[in-house]
Structure to design on (100 residues):
């Protein structure tokens, strides 16, 4: 799967990009027809501790899934986003297989 990482308001390091790629690749076992994923990592300029936002837009044939999570760390936000996407992909796969 092609994963594009976009960092907003900061520069992203290689470790975080690798983490994103690895986590998104794991989603392919739930639904193998995923075309690509765009991951937007944002830092909000607030005094709030939970100022890291991970927004994942996943392209699958006939649909786009968008999940947005805000947490203290990007890893935590990505993990929550990936869990939401897992549920969406499983639901999508079940829906398609029930129509066949």
């Amino acid at each position: 799967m092609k994963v594009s990482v976009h960092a907003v308001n900061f520069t992203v390091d290689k470790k975080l990009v690798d983490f994103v790629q690895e986590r998104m690749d794991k989603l392919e076992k739930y639904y193998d027809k995923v075309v690509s994923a765009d991951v937007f990592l944002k830092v909000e300029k607030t005094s709030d501790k939970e100022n890291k936002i991970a927004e994942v837009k996943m392209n699958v044939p006939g649909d786009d899934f968008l999940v947005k999570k805000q947490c203290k760390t990007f890893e935590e936000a990505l993990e929550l986003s990936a869990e939401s996407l897992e549920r969406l992909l499983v639901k999508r796969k079940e829906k398609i297989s029930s129509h066949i």
